Amino acid sequence: MKTLTLIPIAAFALCVTQAYAGDDAGTSNAASHSNAAMASESVGAPSGGTSAGGAPVGKTRAEVREEYLRAQKDGTLEKLNAEYGGE
Known about the structure:
By secondary structure, the protein is mainly alpha-helical. The chain has a domain at 56-87. Helix content is 70%, strand content 5%. The protein has a two-stranded antiparallel ribbon. It is elongated and about 75 Å long.
């Protein structure tokens, strides 16, 4: 008798969890957009943008050079070179 009660409850729980599984996509998508924005502002991070055709777009040469010069001025480059044994 107990198994006849547990089977519909288990089926109902399975249906409910599947119904709510799609709701997480909206919240995690918003979180990933904010993470991508933070990553693109940091030094040396990939831009994460896409072109109109959907192909990934990197930084321009001028943007990379600007980040390099900024890292030289604020001491980040020397710190990383000392830490990792660079030039």
